[in-house]
Design a protein that fits this description.
The structure is a homodimer of 126-residue chains.
Chain A: H1 8-11, H2 22-38, E1 41-42, H3 43-52, H4 60-72, E2 76-80, E3 91-95, H5 97-125
Antiparallel strand pairs in A: 1-3, 2-3
Chain B binds a DNA duplex (30 and 30 nucleotides) through residues 1-6, 19, 22, 25, 42-44, 47, 58-62, 64-65, 68, 85-91.
DNA sequence: TACATCTATTGACTAATAGAGAATAGTGTG
DNA sequence: CACACTATTCTCTATTAGTCAATAGATGTA
């Protein structure tokens, strides 16, 4: 089963189950950082919150992996949740100081991206 | 030399030469389609035009490869330029009918992305 | 207690993409 | 001819992403 990325835009409305575009994946990282900064959360919650952002097509393991990798990089830190849980112990993630800095870079990038997309949208309308 | 993507946001303002974010790469495909639709062009020109969009950090081979792959997919078509050139013959790309459809999908995706980013920006300001 | 179900997270395997550098090649200029 | 500039292609390898399966605690229920 091909999981094309290049070529994503062909099957978006056509074929079987709809997959997300590469853009979706690219936004995952800042989205997680922003939500974690808002309020420390665990992966399962973040998974649901991504849904409400329209990034809900991402496979859980992609999200968990991203979280683990960002922790290795020192952008976020996790502690085991001591409160009662309806399941196995879960990691609560919070932003580190380094993560704050990284998030600032990401904000600049998001701004630039907004700008670029807007330019593209204008160009196509004329 | 590591060409990290995950981890991009660390070195953006810090280390050596600045690389682009994954977002930049994700936008390349629709950007090319839009510019080609505006006016058929060859790769070298597109390369320069990307610059003015703020996507100038992309390596030429990435851009040429993307063009070739989009041609294989049937989204664009190329003819050798018959006019005089100041160099070797060059391919002029133009959008196909299929490419028009793909571009529409991309436009939806760009809209959605604008939306998501805006939501994220709002959330971080409060 | 055996079993299903829901909450949570992790691991392993492989396909696909991206980044870099070098190769190829035509044209014009000193 | 050597060099610079225009233009495109190729190859090699690092990195990322997608999928599936495994692990595991808690809760309910037959």
């Amino acid at each position: 089963m091909p999981r094309r990325h290049r070529g994503w835009a062909m099957g978006a409305g056509g074929g079987g189950g709809n997959r997300h575009s590469p853009l979706t994946v690219s936004i995952l990282e800042p989205a997680l950082l922003i939500m974690i900064k808002e309020r420390p959360r665990h992966g399962y919650t973040l998974l649901a919150d991504l849904e409400s952002l329209g990034l809900g097509t991402l496979h859980p393991s992609v999200v968990y992996r991203t979280l683990r990798e960002m922790e290795v990089l020192g952008w976020i830190r996790s502690d085991w949740d001591t409160g009662q849980t309806q399941g196995p112990p879960r990691r609560i993630y919070q932003l580190t100081d380094q993560g704050e800095g990284v998030l600032k870079n990401w904000q600049n990038e998001l701004d630039k991206t907004q700008d670029t997309i807007q330019q593209l949208q204008k160009r196509i309308q004329s």
